[in-house]
């Protein structure tokens, strides 16, 4: 389709976009507020006016809202037409009528879309002399700050929060010029995507509360492309650093992974980097007493002498980079490399990897574009939040596609589509062990114990393909549901099955695999999606090794006496008794980590590791996509990347630069052959220059450290990457994997991301970051046999893990905001069991599980099936349990102290 | 040739003209209030710090000699946790004063700030803050900003309506 | 004994007088410039700022004597020595009073001209050895300028020699007992004076230094004591050309009432003051203008002067 903009001819490759998207993609700066590349068009703000002419003869033209106009063949458009410009200037003037004069103390200042558009539209002076409207603010919890005075009524917040992310507690109140966006009453925002309001809001109504505590303007932040470390999805982020501390995290667009959004754990979890628990010096245990500081050289010398016996075992880490795990494996030799996982978790990790090698895995973009979903067992809102956001889009996709085709509504016309679809949902089947925040999407969520969920999955596979093994003794209700699910998945164009290891059931993974295999036989569009527990779980699984029980065996039989633990707290991965035995059996324990924890407390020698903010490395996400995360700032000596510590201990190995270890990895295994090409090499230069991590407006260079020494230090050199730790470098847009921030002339806010995309919401210029390094085999997948549910322990109640987006992740709980939102330990019971035991909500109960007795408050949740109970998983205040496991609950004696184990 | 001689003659005659030199340490000139000398931070008419740590002066500074960290007090007012000017780098261009939206940072007619040790030219907030409003007597940013601070609820500032009640639907 | 001691005392006196004068000139010039530019000049160090030169010297001696890493070390060090030596040597033949000269050479004038020609080497070598483009450009300019102006300087003085009938400077002074040569040889004086300014690289002919084009020209890389040698040599050069002007055109030590040496000193200082006045007044010409002035105006003038003087002397002699 050809259209003319400013009398220049353009050929639109994709005519399904609206005129605004077309103009932005072609490089024309059209101001807008309410349109958003994902939330699309509602035509509320009237800011994107352009003039459209019928044909060459038309000299008058007419003003249209470009976001509500579809391009037509031969259409002539003028963005810079005088009348259109005047119209836009008037619109911004009345949008700004009540906007307060508080930019200096507004956290959005400097990256404010409203500022950008005001300048773009040419509004300079408020002509109105009438008083300004004011609003009272709400306390929205520890993550998001509210300042309603600044609102310009674009409705983006509710469109994202309620319509897109399914939040129920933010809405529109009031009328006429008093329209108010907020909660019915003050209180923490409930959605785990609330932080996106900060980016979605074009001005400073919603701002980042964690940033407010150590506020820094965007132009003062040193930023780099990074990858989130708080779950297995590998969302792309921009962490920002100033004065040696991490200040905030913003979304980095990745079309296939996180798109334009981040979850709150990813956005606010960063503060562990600034935690007072950080290990900043090498520490050596003095006799039996506390750890004392030693120099880095001394630490390396000691570590070498501890390792000199040659009987050393290395424990890798699912949250350390691929490089660090590889360096450890090289140091201790592959046969002595182990995973810091209990037997059950180790099994799940291996199973997940084998499924990754067998099935085409869905990226988050694939997930959001599927038309039928079977969610089997995984509580994705808590284990992989952005997957939940993608699933929410998938749930409404089928009816939207149908209505759009029926009523001939273009896909971008959000207002019309939403009105047409109303609350209609597509096929979405949810089977879970307890309540989830996606329950509203499913017609009738199926609740059962993990074993029964697996049975349902096997039954669905059997119903799809009779060749798949059948499940004996299936309850009739489940059998009927299985038939319905199978029929629905079979008829869908893009069916998706989602599962994961968080239930602790290998049978569940096998059931999901069977469904995927059965669907894959007839529909090549069928996809499987598995979550991964930590940011590099899949990467660790690619480096095979035994589990913690094997470690204990090796220590006991004398084949090993020294332990190197890489960035993991073993007490979070296995029963405390087992870990204690390991530490008792080991003669020497060396721990490399960034935060003090229970494992570092057992170490003889602790080496300070750099966090994601200070180290560059490769992480492999749940779908096997390897992505590079670049250091935001150099680590403060003696802190350094774990792989550098390990390389210093390894004889006959010299990897002075990142590229050297990547090259060694690439030749070590077929899985890693692509790790050297995930991003531009270290000698990449943009027109002869490095890419600056600091914006060109970066301030205070000659005063930041002047109180210590008036002479400025030289900027740290970065030999590992094409990025520089300074403001010197190329002003041009770097290729996708190296973009350190979104900024281009006239677009100070993150809305300028379209200047880095080939087209609006399209791939990044210069290539999307990362690459899938695990590709499924082409041979047809076989079926797993249904296994009877394995239950450990004995007792009347089966405990299943309940994951929490805030609290179940090791690092993010060191952020004050997240710690505030993390739940206190509890046990959740279904109403049937609660009634039988005589337990009321909040009553103290005694839990007996795996030989331990805990006093916990009870919660009664409708969605817990009879005979089951949910125990929060991986909470800092609770010990590790290998769940699911059987145990018992009893009403506590009235005088029992509450809470802590 | 003649013009050269005339020039030489004119210059020669200047040997008998009055000298314009001001003998500096003994004699002193009065500087105009607009003189761009030592930088100060001024206060509100109420005696509160004017600087709200907006980072505009540090951003506009061509030699990057201003470093600020913003903080917010319990009264809801923003203030600089530290405000550091490295005068050994400052070129007294006055851009900071132009950029300041709250009239907090001002250049003063004081040029006598040479130091034998460069480190002494690093001024912290305590060294910069004066006790008055400087050249701009009346301006009070928080009266106009529409923010809620201690002693001024929403809608009590200048030219502001009382806060909207979002629960009412009356026109 | 006396044959050795006498000249030695004269040498010491002349050396002391010239060096003191040169050092003092630094202060005198700055004060005079101040006077003509309606300001004071250095007036803080000592009475009337008289010790300014001392302060300058102390400062310059304590400065780091820096050798550029890529410089030709030997040549770089020798260059300032050459200029210092040759300018000082020229003073050997200058008669301060009747019979008061270190060496009463009968080719005194030629000796002076020869010495001044040699000083070109100092500038050329200094600029070359610095291994700096500005220094090299400065020294190239200096060489072109000095070699050109040497020609007219010599030619302009030949009129005087013709009239005096001698190259001996004392004889030339004595020859002016009736009439100073500044009147019959006014053209020669003009040409000589311009050429002398150019020879000493004084403003307006300081193109080899040309601060606003070449940083500091041929001595950009010099610092400390070596720079001081260049610096002082310039003032010694100024003194030399002033003394030469006095000897050749202004009757040398001749004058009523006062001691001949006093007359000589007064006249020399007056010429020096005039050179400073020119510095205070005139801007620097372009390089092509400088050379055009020399070859197209001064050379014909000097030749014509020589021709006319020769003709007159010939006519008078017959």
Structure, explained:
The complex is a heterotrimer of chains A (901), B (171) and C (318). Chain A is built from 25 helices and 37 strands. In chain A, α10 (343-358) runs parallel beside α17, α15 (450-464) runs parallel beside α17 and α19 runs parallel beside α21. Chain A is 27% helix and 17% strand. Residues 896-901 of chain A have low confidence and may be disordered. Chain A is an alpha/beta fold and 901 residues long. Chain A starts with a strand and ends in a 10-residue tail after the last strand. In chain A, the strands form 9 sheets. Chain A has a 7-stranded mixed β-sheet, with helices on both faces. A 6-stranded mixed beta barrel of chain A has the order 32-36-33-35-34-37. A 5-stranded mixed β-sheet of chain A has the order 2-1-5-3-4, covered by helices on one side. Chain B has 171 residues and is an alpha+beta fold. Chain B has a domain at 31-136: 2-Layer Sandwich (Alpha-Beta Plaits), CATH 3.30.70.3270. Chain B has 5 helices and 6 strands, in the order αβαββαββααβ. The longest helix of chain B has 12 residues, at 2-13. The mean pLDDT of chain B is 91. Chain C has 318 residues and is mostly helical. Chain C folds into 2 domains: 20-52, no CATH class; 65-307, no CATH class. Chain C has helices at residues 2-36, 52-62, 73-90, 108-129, 133-164, 169-175, 186-199, 211-214, 224-249, 260-281, 287-317. Chain C is globular and about 65 Å long. The model of chain C has no long low-confidence stretch (mean pLDDT 84). At the A-B interface, β6 of A face α2, β2, β3 and β6 of B.
What is the gyration radius of chain B calculated from CA atoms? 24 Å
Oligomer: heterotrimer
Average predicted confidence as pLDDT of chain C: 84
The first-to-last residue Cα distance of chain C is: 48 Å
* Alpha carbon gap, first and last residue of chain B: 90 Å
How many DSSP helices of chain C?
A: 11
Strand composition percent of chain B: 15-25%
Weakly predicted, low-confidence segments of chain B: none
CATH class of the domain at 31-136 in chain B: Alpha Beta
Write the CATH architecture name of the domain at 31-136 in chain B: 2-Layer Sandwich
The largest contact between protein chains, plus residue counts on each side, is: A-B, 47 and 51 residues
Structural class per helix/strand content of chain C? mainly alpha
Structural class computed from helices and strand pairing of chain B: alpha+beta
Q: Which overall shape of chain B is indicated by the principal axes computed on the Cα atoms?
A: elongated
Number of helices of chain B: 5
Fraction of residues in H or I helices of chain C: 55-70%
Could you give the order of strands across the largest sheet of chain B?
2-3-5
């Amino acid at each position: 389709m050809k259209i003319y903009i400013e009398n220049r001819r353009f050929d639109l490759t994709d005519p399904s976009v609206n005129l605004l998207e077309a103009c932005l993609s072609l490089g024309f700066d059209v101001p807008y507020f309410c349109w958003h590349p994902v939330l699309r068009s509602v035509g509320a703000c009237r800011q994107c006016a352009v003039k459209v002419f019928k044909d060459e003869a038309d000299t008058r033209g007419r003003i249209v809202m470009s976001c509500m106009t579809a391009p037509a063949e031969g259409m002539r458009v003028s963005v810079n037409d005088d009348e259109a410009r005047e119209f836009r200037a008037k619109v911004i003037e009345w949008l700004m009528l009540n906007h307060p004069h508080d930019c200096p103390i507004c956290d959005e200042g400097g990256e404010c879309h409203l500022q950008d558009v005001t300048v773009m539209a040419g509004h300079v002076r408020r002509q109105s002399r009438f008083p300004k409207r004011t609003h009272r603010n709400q306390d929205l919890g520890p993550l998001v700050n509210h300042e309603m005075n600044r609102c310009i009524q674009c409705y983006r917040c509710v469109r994202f929060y309620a319509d897109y992310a399914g939040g129920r507690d933010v809405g529109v109140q009031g009328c006429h010029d008093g329209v108010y966006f907020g909660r019915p009453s003050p209180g923490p925002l409930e959605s785990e995507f609330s932080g996106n309001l900060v980016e979605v809001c074009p001005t400073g109504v919603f701002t980042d509360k964690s940033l407010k505590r150590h506020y820094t303007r965007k132009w003062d932040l040193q930023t780099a492309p990074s990858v989130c470390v708080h779950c297995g999805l590998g969302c792309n982020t921009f962490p920002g650093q100033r004065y040696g501390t991490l200040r905030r995290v913003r979304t980095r667009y990745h079309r296939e992974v996180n798109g334009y959004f981040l979850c709150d754990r990813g956005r606010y979890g960063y503060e562990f980097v600034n935690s007072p628990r950080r290990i900043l010096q090498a520490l050596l245990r003095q006799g039996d007493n506390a750890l004392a500081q030693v120099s880095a050289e001394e630490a390396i010398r000691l570590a070498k002498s501890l390792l000199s016996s040659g009987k050393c075992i290395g424990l890798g880490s699912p949250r350390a980079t691929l490089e660090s795990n590889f360096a450890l494996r090289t140091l201790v030799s592959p046969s002595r490399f182990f995973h810091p996982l209990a037997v059950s978790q180790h099994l799940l990790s291996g199973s997940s990897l084998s499924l990754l090698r067998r099935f085409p895995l869905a990226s988050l973009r694939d997930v959001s574009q599927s038309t039928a979903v079977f969610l089997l067992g995984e509580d994705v809102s808590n284990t992989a939040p952005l997957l939940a956001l993608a699933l929410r889009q998938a749930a409404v996709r089928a009816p939207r596609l149908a209505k759009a085709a029926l009523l001939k509504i273009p896909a971008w016309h959000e207002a019309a589509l939403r009105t047409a679809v109303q609350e209609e949902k597509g096929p979405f089947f949810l089977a879970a062990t307890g309540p989830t925040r996606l329950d509203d999407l499913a017609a009738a969520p199926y609740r059962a114990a993990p074993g029964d969920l697996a049975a349902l999955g096997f039954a669905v596979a059997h119903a799809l393909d009779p060749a798949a093994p059948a499940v004996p003794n299936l309850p009739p209700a489940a059998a009927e549901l299985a038939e319905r699910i199978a029929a629905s998945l079979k008829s869908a164009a893009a069916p998706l099955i989602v599962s994961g290891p968080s239930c602790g059931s290998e049978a569940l993974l096998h059931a999901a695999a069977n469904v995927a295999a059965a669907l894959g036989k007839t529909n090549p569009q069928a996809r499987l999606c598995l979550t991964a527990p930590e940011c590099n779980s899949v990467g660790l699984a690619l480096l095979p090794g035994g589990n913690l029980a094997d470690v204990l065996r090796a220590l006991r039989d004398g084949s090993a006496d020294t332990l190197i633990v890489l960035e993991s707290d073993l007490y979070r991965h296995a029963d405390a008794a087992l870990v204690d035995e390991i530490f008792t059996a080991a003669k020497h324990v060396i721990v490399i980590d960034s935060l003090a924890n229970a494992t570092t407390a057992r170490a003889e020698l602790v080496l300070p590791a750099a966090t994601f903010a200070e180290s560059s490395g490769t992480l492999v996400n749940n779908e096997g996509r390897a992505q590079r995360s670049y250091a935001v700032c150099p680590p403060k000596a003696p802190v350094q990347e774990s792989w550098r510590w390990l390389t210093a201990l390894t004889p006959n190995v010299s990897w002075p630069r990142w590229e050297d270890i990547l090259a060694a990895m690439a030749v070590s295994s077929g899985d890693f052959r692509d790790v050297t090409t995930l991003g531009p090499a270290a000698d990449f230069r943009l027109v002869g220059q490095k890419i600056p991590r600091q914006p060109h407006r970066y301030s205070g260079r000659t005063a930041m450290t002047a109180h210590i020494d008036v002479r400025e230090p030289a900027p740290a050199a970065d030999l590992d990457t094409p990025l520089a730790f300074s403001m010197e470098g190329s002003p041009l847009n770097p290729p996708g994997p190296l973009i350190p921030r979104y900024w281009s002339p006239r677009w100070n806010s993150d809305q300028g991301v379209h200047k880095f995309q080939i087209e609006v919401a399209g791939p990044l210029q210069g290539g999307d970051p990362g690459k899938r390094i695990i590709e499924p085999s082409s041979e047809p997948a076989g079926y797993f046999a249904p296994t009877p549910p394995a239950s450990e322990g004995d007792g009347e109640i089966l405990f299943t893990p309940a994951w929490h987006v805030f609290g179940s992740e090791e690092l993010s709980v060191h952020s004050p905001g997240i710690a505030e939102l993390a739940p206190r330990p509890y046990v959740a019971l279904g109403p049937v069991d609660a009634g039988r035991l005589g337990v009321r909500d909040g009553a103290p109960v005694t839990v007996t599980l795996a030989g331990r007795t805990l006093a916990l408050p009870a919660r009664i949740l409708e969605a817990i099936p009879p005979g089951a109970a949910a125990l929060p998983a991986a909470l800092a205040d609770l010990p590790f349990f290998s769940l699911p496991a059987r145990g018992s609950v009893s009403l506590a004696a009235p005088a029992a102290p509450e809470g802590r184990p | 040739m003649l013009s050269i001689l005339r020039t030489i003659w004119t210059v020669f005659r200047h040997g008998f003209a009055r000298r314009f030199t001001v003998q500096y340490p003994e004699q002193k000139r009065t500087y105009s209030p607009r003189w761009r000398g030592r930088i100060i931070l001024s206060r509100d008419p109420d005696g509160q710090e004017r600087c709200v740590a907006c980072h505009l002066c540090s951003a506009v500074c061509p030699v990057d000699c201003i470093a600020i960290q913003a903080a917010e007090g319990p009264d809801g007012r923003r203030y600089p946790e530290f405000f550091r000017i490295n005068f050994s780098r400052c070129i007294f261009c006055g851009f900071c004063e132009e950029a300041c939206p709250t009239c907090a940072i001002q250049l003063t007619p004081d040029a006598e700030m040479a130091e034998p040790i460069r480190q002494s030219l690093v001024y912290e907030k305590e060294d910069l803050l004066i006790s008055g409003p400087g050249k701009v007597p009346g301006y009070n940013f928080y009266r106009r900003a529409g923010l809620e601070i201690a002693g001024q609820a929403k809608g009590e500032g200048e030219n502001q309506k009382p806060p909207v009640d979002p629960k009412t639907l009356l026109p | 004994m006396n044959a050795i001691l006498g000249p030695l005392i004269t040498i010491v006196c002349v050396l002391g007088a010239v060096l003191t004068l040169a050092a003092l000139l630094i202060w005198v010039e700055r004060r005079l410039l101040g006077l003509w530019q309606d300001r004071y000049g250095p007036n803080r160090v000592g009475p009337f700022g008289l010790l300014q030169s001392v302060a300058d010297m102390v400062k310059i001696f304590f400065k780091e004597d820096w050798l550029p890493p890529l410089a030709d070390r030997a040549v770089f060090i020798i260059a300032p020595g050459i200029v210092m030596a040759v300018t000082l040597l020229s003073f050997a033949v200058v008669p301060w009073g009747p019979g008061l000269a270190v060496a009463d050479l009968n080719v005194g004038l030629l000796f002076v001209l020869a010495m001044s020609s040699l000083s070109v080497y100092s500038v050329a070598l200094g600029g070359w050895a610095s291994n700096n483009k500005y220094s090299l450009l400065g020294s190239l300019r200096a060489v072109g300028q000095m070699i050109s102006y040497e020609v007219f300087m010599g030619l302009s003085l030949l009129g005087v020699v013709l009239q005096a009938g001698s190259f001996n400077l004392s004889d030339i002074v004595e020859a002016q007992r009736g009439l100073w040569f500044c009147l019959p040889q006014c053209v020669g004086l003009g040409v000589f004076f311009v050429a002398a300014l150019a020879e000493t690289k004084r403003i307006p002919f300081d193109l080899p230094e040309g601060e606003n084009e070449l940083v500091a020209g041929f001595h950009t890389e010099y610092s400390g004591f070596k720079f001081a040698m260049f610096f002082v040599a310039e003032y010694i050069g100024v003194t030399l050309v002033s003394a030469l002007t006095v000897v050749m055109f202004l009757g040398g030590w001749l004058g009523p009432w006062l001691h001949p040496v006093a007359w000589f000193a007064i006249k020399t200082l007056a010429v020096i003051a005039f050179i400073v006045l020119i510095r205070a007044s005139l801007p620097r010409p372009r390089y092509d203008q400088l050379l055009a002035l020399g070859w197209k105006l001064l050379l014909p003038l000097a030749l014509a002067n020589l021709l006319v003087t020769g003709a007159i002397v010939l006519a008078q002699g017959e």
